[in-house]
Design goal:
- There is one protein chain.
- By secondary structure, the protein is an alpha/beta fold.
- The chain has a single domain, classed as Divalent-metal-dependent TIM barrel enzymes (TIM Barrel, Alpha-Beta Barrel).
- It is 45% helix and 14% strand.
- It contains ten helices and eight strands.
- Strand 1, helix 1 and strand 2 form a beta-alpha-beta unit.
- The protein is globular, with a radius of gyration of 18 Å.
- The relative contact order is 0.14.
- The structure holds manganese (II) ion (MN).
- The site of manganese (II) ion (MN) has 4 residues, from loops.
C-alpha cells in the first residue's frame, strides 16, 4: 500500500512546532509519514536533529519536508545576487534534509513563493531560465544527499512558473536528474487542470509525491473534489509513492495568514475534534486505496 502521511500544520498555526509531539500523534493515529516545513532545520543544532531522527526511527514514522521559498532567496530572480544567495540557501536546506535521512523535499522550492510580480507575457521565460540554471546546480547537492526534489505545481496565486502537471514535467525534464520529479496536489489541480485524470496520466512515472486536500483545503471528502477519479488515475499509472494530505483549516497565526485561511473551516475547532478528523482522513484514503486495488 502507498505510504500515507499528513502535514504537521493541520494542527498548529506556526511553521516551527514541537515536531516530536506530532510524530507521536501521527503514528498513534496510524499515519506512515509526517511532513513539515524544512526551513526550521536550518536553525536547529545537530543534537536537536539527532534527537528528532532518533524519535522518528523508534516510532517508525517517516519524515518528509516541504517549503514555500522566501522571496529573499528567489532562485528565479533577475537579481543575480538574490538568485545566487537562493542557490546556497536551498543547498543548505537539502543538506539538512539529507542529514535527517530525508528522501523528499516538496513545495514551491524552485522560485519565490507567491512571487508573481512579472510581466505576464514577456517576463515568465526569463524567470524560468533563471530557475532552471539554479536548479541544475541545487540538484547536484540533492544527488549527493540522496534527496529527491519534488517540483510542485501550484495555483496561479502562489506562483507564476509552474501551475500545471505539463509545466512541472517540462521543468523536471529540463533539469534532467534522477533526483528531480513532479509533485501534484489536488487542491492546486482543482484550480488549474482541465482534468485530474489527464494531469496524473501526463505526470506518469515522473510523479514522485502526491498531496491531497479538498477544494476548500479541508480533508479529502469534505468538499466537492471527485477523489474516485483521482485514486483511479493513480492506480492506472501504477503510482506506488507517498500520499501526503495537507489540510489547512484554522484561521489565524502565521500559517493561517500565509495560506489565506480567513475563517475556521471545521465545525468544531477543538484539538480533540482535529484528532478525530485526522483519523477520518486516514481511513478515507485507506478505503480509496483498497477500492482501486492499491492496497
Ligand atoms: Mn502541496
Amino acid at each position: 500500500m502507498n505510504k500515507l502521511g499528513i502535514f504537521i500544520n493541520f494542527w498548529e498555526n506556526t511553521w516551527n512546532v514541537d515536531h516530536i509531539k506530532y510524530m507521536k500523534k501521527a503514528k498513534d493515529i496510524g499515519f506512515d509519514i509526517l511532513e513539515f516545513q524544512a526551513q526550521p532545520l536550518l536553525e536547529m543544532s545537530h543534537a536537536h536533529m539527532d534527537e528528532m531522527k532518533k524519535n522518528a526511527d523508534e516510532l517508525g514514522i517517516e519524515l518528509t519536508y516541504s517549503l514555500g521559498l522566501d522571496p529573499r532567496f528567489d532562485v528565479s530572480s533577475k537579481d543575480e545576487q538574490i538568485r545566487l544567495g537562493g542557490v546556497e540557501y536551498l543547498k543548505r536546506i537539502v543538506e539538512c534534509v539529507g542529514y535527517m535521512g530525508g528522501k523528499l523535499l516538496s513545495g514551491v522550492s524552485y522560485a519565490g513563493w507567491r512571487c508573481c510580480d512579472v510581466d505576464p507575457v514577456s517576463g515568465k521565460q526569463q524567470l524560468l531560465e533563471n530557475s532552471l540554471k539554479s536548479m541544475r546546480e541545487i540538484v547536484r547537492t540533492a544527488e549527493d544527499n540522496g534527496v529527491t526534489y519534488c517540483v510542485e505545481a501550484v495555483n496561479r496565486f502562489e506562483g507564476c512558473l509552474i501551475n500545471t502537471a505539463k509545466e512541472a514535467v517540462a521543468y523536471a525534464d529540463a533539469v534532467d536528474s534522477p533526483n528531480i520529479g513532479v509533485l501534484l496536489d489536488t487542491y492546486h489541480m482543482n484550480i488549474e487542470e482541465d482534468s485530474f485524470r489527464n494531469a496524473i496520466l501526463l505526470a506518469g512515472d515522473k510523479l514522485v509525491n502526491f498531496h491531497t486536500g479538498d477544494n476548500n483545503r479541508r480533508c479529502p471528502g469534505r468538499g466537492h473534489i471527485d477523489f474516485d477519479e483521482i485514486f483511479q488515475a493513480l492506480a492506472d499509472v501504477g503510482y506506488t509513492g507517498r500520499i501526503v494530505s495537507e489540510p489547512f483549516v484554522a484561521q489565524g497565526g502565521e500559517v493561517g495568514k500565509n495560506i489565506f485561511v480567513w475563517r475556521d473551516l471545521e465545525p468544531d475547532m477543538s484539538p480533540e475534534y482535529r484528532d478525530k478528523e485526522a483519523e477520518y482522513l486516514l481511513h478515507y484514503e485507506q478505503e480509496m486505496l483498497k477500492k482501486y486495488g492499491m492496497a
